[in-house]
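As a warm-up, study this chain.
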Amino acid sequence: MTRDALFNPVELVEEDRTRGLVLLADHARNALPDEYGDLGLPASEFSRHIAYDIGVEMVTRGLAARLRAPAAMAAYSRLLIDPNRGEDDPTLIRQLYDGTIVPANYPMSGAERERRLERYYRPYHDAVGALVSSVAHASGAAPFIVSIHSFTPHMQGRRRPWEIGILWDSDPRAVEPMLAALRADPALTVGDNEPYDGALRGDTMFKHAIVEGYAHLLIEIRQDLIADQAGADAWSDRLAPILDAINADPDIHVAQQFGSRTGPVFEGAKR
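Now compare it with the structure written out below.
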């Protein structure tokens, strides 16, 4: 057995599955399987946002502990393959990312692309799907799914003014109370589908929430605010009671189809 065979593409944080809440972190880590070395990049590139979402693993663990909710975290760098993209998305395996060329990703053979899908991407999504199904079974209701991400303070020379953004597609059930609670704090600048639009066909929320009609939201926190443990703890403390209150609403735990702004939900939605 090679060392690479021991690389687990997902880590599960075990908590109380009967609570009906699932936490996800698609870009929690900057690790690579041994066989891929450094993808031809200097070590400094793996401390940047192109490799992972800075601070997200700490926030996800903090929320899991405070909410007693299980979590699934991808254990590999998004530079290997991005779990928050559809299999047909052209940015699934980046060859150029924010000015950095990834030598091991270009050229990319069809066989190597399929290998990364089969060994890393699909096992992560299989684990997420199994966790979501397990929480639905244990709680006896539709689960509430929350995905944690982070974003850079600046992009392409422009400052991003938001401390936090909530991304979503068409289901407002969890989004509206989350935005209201965050905007009640006058010290926060809160983005609604900022700094990105939450409608991305084939992404994690589409696969595991939208298709199933499960209430969900994606939280983006500015990276400089959660780059250390103190910042991550502060944001876990801030977000946990809001998420707990949303999770306590019975209407959140009813499967309901809202569709998607990207097109028909069930057209090629599942592999």
